Amino acid sequence: MYISSLVESRLLQLKNPLEYTAHLEQGRSGMIQLDADGRILNFNQAASQICALEKEIVIGQRADIVFQGYGDKFLRVFDMTNQEEINSLNIRIKGRNVCLEIDRLLLAGEGRPSGMVVILNDVSSTYAGIKQLQTVHMLHSLGELAKQLFDIKSSSIGEVESYMRLILARVRENGSSESSHLLKRAINETVHINTVVRELLFMANSPMSKKAGVTINSLLDEAALLVFRGLGGENVNYNKNLANGLPDLYGDANALKQVFINIMQNALEAMTAEGVLTVKSWLDAEKNMIVINIADTGVGIPKDVMERVFEPFYGTKDHHAGLGLAFVERIVQEHHGIVQIGPGERKGTNVLIYLPITGTVTGGRKLRGRSIQ
Fold first, then answer.
1. What are 348-371's pLDDT values in tens digits?
2. What are φ and ψ of residue 94, in 5° steps?
3. Which residue(s) pair with 342 in the sheet?
4. Are 188 and 231 in contact (CB under 8 A)?
5. Residues 72/93, Cβ–Cβ less than 8 Å
6. Which residues lie across from 97 on neighbouring strands?
7. pLDDT value at position 188?
8. N or C: which end of the chain has fewer CB within 10 A?
9. Do 184 and 146 share a structural domain?
10. Are residues 11 and 103 in the same domain?
11. What is the CATH number of the domain that holds 314?
C-alpha cells in the first residue's frame, strides 16, 4: 500500500485492495468497494446495517443508482472524480438521522483508478453524547451565572414586582383599563425572569432532595394557586378532577411543584383571551404509576416547534425562550418518570406525566423519559 499525491484530498490509493477489503469484511466499519464504473463489488455487513440495505440487492448495481435517495452530498462520496474533502456527513436514512465519518480510498489502476473503497463509521451515538455533554456544560455555566443573579432576583426584581402589583391594584380602583393592561404585561415579564432564574438554579444545583410522603394532589393545588395568582387568568376556567386516595410518592416536592407550575404557566400564556385549564390525576394500577394530565384550549404548539420543545432555551417570537420543558423533562427523568406532550382533543396542548409509585419504571430509560405525539 502506498499514499499517492491525492492524500491532500483525502483520496488514498491501494496496491493490494483484496487484502485490505478482506480485513474489513468482518470489521465494525462499513465498507463499500466499487469497480472502475462505480458498480458495487463488496458491501460488508456493517455497511448493510448503516445504509439499511441488503447486500444481495446492491451487489453489481451502480452506487449512484443505489444511493440516489440519500441526497446529493452522499452521492458525491462515490464520485471518483470528486476531489472534495468529505470527512463527515449528516444524512437521513430510513427515517433516522445518521452522523457518519467517511474515508475514501482510490484503488490504483493503469492511468486511472480501478475502483474505490468507501469506509463509513456511524458515530451518531457519540455525536449525541457530545451534544448532551455540551448542553450539560452550558447549563452548568448558566447555573453559575444564575447563582450570581439570585441576590438580584431576590431583591431588585422581587421589589419591582411587588411595587407594580400595588400600582396595578390602585389603577384598577381608578378604572384605567389601558394602564392596567400595560402593568399586567410588565408583571408577566418579571414573573418570566423569576422563572428562568429559578429554573437555572434548579438545573445547576446538587441532586434532587427526595423524601417520602410527597402528595401529588397537594402539589397540583399549590401550583395552580401560584400560577393564577401570578398571571391572573381571570378569563380562564379551571377544571380540576383529582383522584382521591392516591398513594404518596418518594420524590422532591419542590422540584415537582415547579414542573407543574411551568406547565400551567405555559397553558395560561397560550390562552390569551379565554379558555379552560384542565388538571387531572389518577392511578394507573397496571403500570403502578400516578398520571397527571394538564391540558389547555390555547393556540397549541406548531408541528415544527413540537419536535424541539424539550431543547433548552428554544422558543419562538410568540413565546419566551427559557429552560421550559427541558427543565420539566429533567425533573421527571430524575423521578424515573415519563412526560408526553401532544395536541389536545380539539385544540390546545395536552401534557401527560407518569410518575412511578415505586420510584422506578421499566422502560423509562428506553423512552428517555419523554414522548412527543
1. 899 999 999 864 443 333 333 445
2. 50, 45
3. 350
4. yes
5. no
6. 92
7. 65
8. C
9. yes
10. yes
11. 3.30.565.10
Long-range contacts of 49-54 (CB under 8 A, 24+ apart): 49/122, 50/93, 50/98, 50/100, 50/120, 50/122, 51/93, 51/120, 52/93, 52/94
Three-state secondary structure call for residue 38: coil
**The amino acid at 328:** V
Report CA-CA distances (Å) from 352 to 94, 334, 338. 29, 16, 8
List alpha helices for 232-308, DSSP H. Answer: 253-270, 303-306
Residues forming a β-bridge with 121: 101
Pairing between β-strand 11-14 and β-strand 96-107 as defined by DSSP bridges: parallel
- Within 111-252, residue ranges assigned H as helices are 124-152, 158-174, 177-204, 216-231
- Residue-wise burial string across 211-237, b where 16 or more C-beta atoms lie within 10 A, e elsewhere: eeebebbebbbebbebbbebbebeebe
Distance CA 371, CA 40 (A): 40
Q: How far is CA 175 from the centre of its chain?
A: 45
- The answer on 169 and 286 residing in a single domain is no
Q: Which three cell numbers stand for residue 359?
A: 420510584
The x, y and z cell numbers of residue 276, run together, are 379552560
Domain region containing 13: 5-122
Question: DSSP label at 153?
Answer: I
My answer on whether 69 and 215 are in the same domain is no
Number of structural domains in the chain: 3
Return d(Cα 163, Cα 200) in angstroms, integer: 25
- As a whole number of Å, the end-to-end CA separation of the chain is 53
Query: In which residue ranges of the chain is pLDDT below 50?
Result: 1-15, 316-323, 359-370, 372
Nearest to 114 by CA among 124, 125, 122, 105: 105
What does the pLDDT read at residue 38? 93
169 and 43 share one domain:
no
Supply the pTM of this predicted model: 0.49
Residues 109 and 144 reside in one and the same domain? no
Amino acid at 69: G
